[in-house]
Amino acid sequence: MAWITILPQHVQKNSSPPFLPIPPLPLPPPMIPTPRLLIRPFQPEDAPAAFEYLSNPTIYRFEPGAPLTLEETTRLITERAKHTDFWAVLHRATDKLVGHLYFSPTEPKEFLTWELGYIFNPAYHNQGYATESATALLRYGFEHFGIHRVVAHCNPENIASWRVLEKIGMTREGHLRQNIFFHRDANCNPLWNDSYAYAILKKDLFPQE
Ligand SMILES: CC(C)(COP(=O)(O)OP(=O)(O)OC[C@H]1O[C@@H](n2cnc3c(N)ncnc32)[C@H](O)[C@@H]1OP(=O)(O)O)[C@@H](O)C(=O)NCCC(=O)NCCS
Questions:
Q1: What are the sequence ranges of the domains in the chain?
Q2: Taking burial as the number of CB atoms within 10 A of a residue's CB, which of 7, 77, 142, 151 is the most buried?
Q3: pTM over 0.70
Q4: Distance, CA 171 to ligand 1 centroid (Å)?
């Protein structure tokens, strides 16, 4: 099996100070099944199904961005298919793309901290799909990617999002006041949002290790 090794930049450049090497990511990336879902890397062919929700203005209420055209979605999904920062979530019985997860290391990489995010097609909300898929990817990441801590942020008004974070076992560690904005008003002023900061440690999920 081939492996990608992610080393801190200073280790790559001059091999000191002696940080522990960061565990490698497996290649090819895995397909992760759950009872109802399959989590896998994006493929360019996912674009039409992704367009169904990336063209929907409601998903951007608490997210950066604006509704995409089919052409923009095709470009985006083709790009996302080249790496594993974003994971497609398919309904196994119908092979239908129902949403996606974001799961990627934060900087500096030697802190072994990853960030989790998600967007699901509103046609499939409130069926437990975000919870089921995020639970599986989180466990897989802790077991196989050498992760120490996973963080996530969401708007306090985005109840569905922080419900998911709590259902998957993450702890609310803070309430950040007006720390971020994704959209601007008609005069181009930032529309500041508060954020809840959530996190989970590997030892929270695997206390015996
Ligand atoms: C956040 C999101 C991914 C959740 O996906 P989902 O598949 O519907 O999530 P789940 O079904 O696993 O869980 C949703 C939970 O929120 C609850 N919920 C949803 N809307 C709610 C509301 N307005 N008030 C109270 N609870 C609500 C559901 O009842 C469910 O909790 P429960 O299982 O305890 O009943 C989805 O709403 C989404 O894609 N939103 C748009 C993009 C977005 O905001 N992403 C997150 C940015 S931080």
A1: 23-205
A2: 77
A3: yes
A4: 17
